[in-house]
Design a protein that fits this description.
Layout (H helix, E strand, L loop, with lengths): L4 H27 L1 H25 L7 H13 L10 E5 L8 H7 L5 E2 L10 E7 L2 E8 L6 E6 H54 L19 H49 L5 H30 L8 E4 H15 L4 E5 L5 E4 L1 H17 L6 E9 L2 E9 L35 H11 L4 E6 L3 E10 L1
Parallel strand pairs: 7-9
Antiparallel strand pairs: 1-5, 2-3, 3-4, 4-5, 6-8, 8-12, 9-10, 10-12, 11-12
Helix pairs in contact: 1-5, 2-3, 2-5, 6-7, 7-10, 9-10
């Protein structure tokens, strides 16, 4: 099945047009015999009228009845290109020939009907009789001393009709390229017209923002067939907004409520650790508990900041930051605790950017911390910066023991943790899945962009853009 809805509509409309064209052609061939025969009858009646008018204008004393019949039959015969002998018979009412008497006798009791032609003069009566196993069409014309009868073998008319159809087929054959182009253009226009409401609806969907509580899609701007779908979409968005608000409120409330007790617990644990005997088992266990409490405090702080970001409440105190000094100090500290990792940074000495110092420091701490945490022994960490299109782009790159598959934009989602490593054994404690999502919120709050790339030799690069000072 073709996955493109637009292409499916295009092919469907094109198939319908082709089927319609073929069906129309077959139907025309089936039903065209009657109208063509009527046209031939009308044409023949006009010729007969013309012949009668010429006979009226000729001196009657010089032309007898037999001669008049011969003249009419000869002139009418010229109207048919493939006339065979005895397929056209003409006689007067009072004097049919010996061969015509039997045919004339048959039409005396025939059912006559009017042709109803679209000519000014009254139409001639028409009758059909069967004579010698063949069908004959007979026209009766008035205007002379006696009625004039013209009998035509229907096979002659059918051959003329077939010639007209062949001519039509030849014209259609020559027009096929033009008809195909017309079909394609018409299909494109019809597909565009049919898909335009769907495209408008799709654009309306993309404009709806979850953080806009009163933003909905108006049902009055679309066809009534879409209204149930739009109503369902609006209800779904309302439910999502409600759930979104509840989740954000829970994160904020939980972070606020946890900070105070966790801070108190941390203080008590530090006091107990200091009062314990150095190197004792109790002091070791208390230190481990204190580390976990410290981790919980970090998570609660991240959740609080993410809830503020969701509510658009991150307040920025932008200042000019000299990037080289900040990165240099951070790298020196990391070298002390990670001597087996090779650190390198390439930052122009005069490069400055505008950002909130605390938030920017937290972003660099998270990125550099992950670069060290998920690196392998004797790994590398590189930090670089450059100016592109008036923005400062900062890149933190590192070798990693994680598999590159799955290291994509999902790492910026909350609670997403890519834990697959080459040896499936990470010595570090698992993260909380909030660090990179917090980095993204910090960058977005500053109006920048953040992206992740993977390269051969197991390199991971995270780049973010900032306002140049």
């Amino acid at each position: 099945m073709i996955q493109s809805f637009r292409l499916n509509v295009f092919l469907g409309v094109l198939a319908c047009m082709l089927i319609f064209a073929v069906a129309t052609r077959i139907m025309v061939r089936q039903v065209s015999e009657g109208p063509i025969l009527l046209y031939l009858y009308e044409t023949l009646s006009k010729h007969i009228d013309n012949e009668i008018e010429e006979l009226k204008q000729a001196p009657q004393s010089k032309i007898d009845v037999a001669s008049q019949v011969q003249i009419v039959q000869y002139n009418l015969g010229k109207s048919f290109a493939d006339l065979k002998p005895n397929e056209l018979q003409v006689w007067m009412a009072g004097g049919p020939s010996q061969d015509q008497k039997q045919l004339a006798a048959l039409i005396e009791n025939a059912n006559w009907r009017d042709l109803n032609p679209t000519i000014e003069k009254p139409s001639m009566p028409l009758a059909e009789v069967s004579f010698q196993g063949e069908t004959w069409s007979v026209l009766r014309a008035a205007g002379l001393k006696e009625d004039l009868f013209v009998a035509v073998n229907k096979n002659l008319l059918l051959r003329s009709a077939s010639t007209i159809m062949r001519t039509r087929e030849a014209v259609v054959q020559n027009l096929w390229p033009l008809l195909i182009v017309f079909a394609l253009v018409a299909t494109l226009l019809m597909s565009y017209w049919a898909l335009k409401p769907v495209m408008r609806l799709q654009q309306s969907f993309t404009k709806v923002q979850l953080d806009s509580p009163d933003e909905r899609i108006s049902e009055t701007h679309f066809f009534r067939e879409f209204r149930d779908f739009i109503r369902y979409f609006n209800d779904l968005i309302d439910h999502l907004r409600t759930s979104y608000k509840q989740a954000a409120r829970f994160s904020s409330d939980a972070a606020h409520e946890l900070r105070t007790p966790l801070t108190i617990i941390r203080g008590h644990l530090h006091r107990l650790v200091n009062e314990s005997s150095d190197g004792s088992k109790l002091q070791l266990e208390l230190s481990l508990v204190a580390e976990e409490v410290e981790r919980l405090i970090t998570i609660s702080n991240k959740l609080l900041m993410l809830s503020l970001a969701d509510a658009g409440g991150i307040k920025l105190d932008k200042q000019e930051i000299k990037l080289l000094d900040l990165v240099g100090e951070m790298v020196e500290d990391l070298k002390l605790f990670n001597p087996d990792i090779d650190f390198d940074f390439e930052i122009p000495s005069n490069l400055r950017l505008k950002a909130d110092p605390d938030l920017f420091f937290q972003l660099l701490t998270n990125l550099m911390g992950n670069a060290v945490k998920y690196n392998h022994p004797q790994g590398q960490v590189q930090c670089s910066a450059e100016v592109r299109n008036g923005q400062v782009w900062i890149t933190v790159a590192n070798t990693t023991l994680l598999t590159l598959e799955g290291l994509d934009h999902r790492v910026f989602e909350r609670f997403y943790r890519h834990r697959q490593s080459v040896n499936q054994n990470l010595s570090e404690k698992p993260g909380d899945g909030l660090g990179l999502s917090l980095c993204r919120e910090i960058v977005l709050a500053h109006g920048g962009q953040i992206e992740i790339r993977t390269e051969p030799e197991r390199w991971v690069k995270i780049s973010s853009s900032w306002e140049a000072a």
